[in-house]
Here is the input.
Amino acid sequence: MSDTCRSDGNTDLYGLGNRLGIYFQMIAFIIAGRRGVMVEPLGALISSINVSLLATFIAVVKAIANGTMRTVDMVIIDSLIFTQVNLPLFSFDLITLLMSPLAFGMQTLVAWFWFVGLDKLPRTDCPDDYGFFFSEASLYGWFSTLWKVLSVGLAILTGIAFLAAYSLMAKMTCRSGYTEDESVTERREKAESRKFKELVFLLFPFTIIMTECTVAWNNLDGVYSVGSVSQLIPLILGIGLVAYMSLCHTQLDEARHRLERSQQIQRELHSRYYEQ
Here is the structure.
């Protein structure tokens, strides 16, 4: 990497506000899985992530069509949304059903980039462009070969995950008179909670390191400040999601406390009644 060679970054796609906004979305996901998955707040969170992915997909396709998307820009975008597009691979429920179509679209676009776009998209004026794979690596050579394999594999797995989730949900919907014991539901929610936390805790730090290292190693200017409305919107959205999920869990904790207190009072009254 040459420290004297610098180029302008694409602030509309991966400026500081955009990056922080996506990081906050993942923090909101961690909060959502802290003490059980709540369907309505989780649905709102997934919807916001889908909107973010759709906006990113449209912006990337438009930039490619206009000839303004560079190879390094595409690599940074791929790194930035790595956690989001891979969430459906670890669950066969609401998350997979709602996120898989867009995630599959992004995975397919990423695969196109490594097979076709890497040679067709313009480069920076620097001698080389760099990506992250636990160290600084040129985008060309073994690094591109590795990501060709990974991108195709992830796209296929995302499609399979969607079909599996759709089949499972369809079977559950068709069951007549299906009821689930409350204890079974609670155990399932706790299992889902652990799954979300383990997944996000695994992918989230890797996403940050991969993205920030790629930005830093390519000496991109203008991507370390929030200086435009296009960056403020995802930043405010991300902060709002964290606040919303925190509020939902606060209310849930209070409701659980009231329920536990009510059950305790009922047990005490029941005990006193039989003692008399």
